[in-house]
Amino acid sequence: MLRFVPIPTGIARHYQAGGVDSYGLLPESKVSDGGGNPCRHCLRMIPEGKGMLVLAHRPFGSVQPYAETGPIFLCAQGCDAGGGADVPEILASPDYIVRGYGADERIVYGTGGVVATGDIPARAAALLALPEVDFVHVRSARNNCFQLRVERG
After folding, report:
1. Per DSSP, what are the bridge partners of residue 84?
2. Sheet of 51-57, strand order
3. pLDDT tens digits for 103-142?
4. Which of 44, 75, 106 is at the close of a domain?
5. Element (H, E) at 101
6. Number of folded domains in the chain?
7. Are residues 16 and 49 in the same domain?
8. Which InterPro entries does the record match to this protein (predicted)?
9. Per the CB 3.0–4.6 Å rule, which of 10, 15, 46, 145 could disulfide with 32?
10. Angle made by CA atoms 23, 145, 20, in degrees to the nearest 5
11. From CA 145, how far away is CA 142, in angstroms rounded?
12. What is the dihedral of CA 120, 122, 128, 133, to 10 degrees?
């Protein structure tokens, strides 16, 4: 069984309360145009006209060479954490990069690839069946932006 995991609530609340991002900058406040602004906490699209934050996020516990940092969107107001066993709403593009990481938060070479959205559960399950893979990232196939994490459920 798989579990689709958003950024932790404590981190989301930090950003939503005006805390600095992974680059030490304040999140930018924007208004969603409704054209595809996926919140990495509730794992839903931010509706048109709603406030959102744009910020740099590093979805890793430590700074090391494989700890990619990049832009994410987040609901400006507190939102409930999404996730669970079902593919979340934010995975609305035709395909994504799916990549395995070890317990040391480093890429497990040979695990990354562009996967059709409907095939993400099967690919993530196959990667998580490997003993060297501790978790999986789903990232934008076009911009490499972090979407969410997949774990054994």
Report:
1. 4
2. 28-31, 51-57, 70-75
3. 999 999 999 999 999 999 999 999 999 999 999 999 999 9
4. 75
5. strand 95-101
6. 2
7. yes
8. DUF1203 (IPR009593)
9. 46
10. 25
11. 8
12. -50
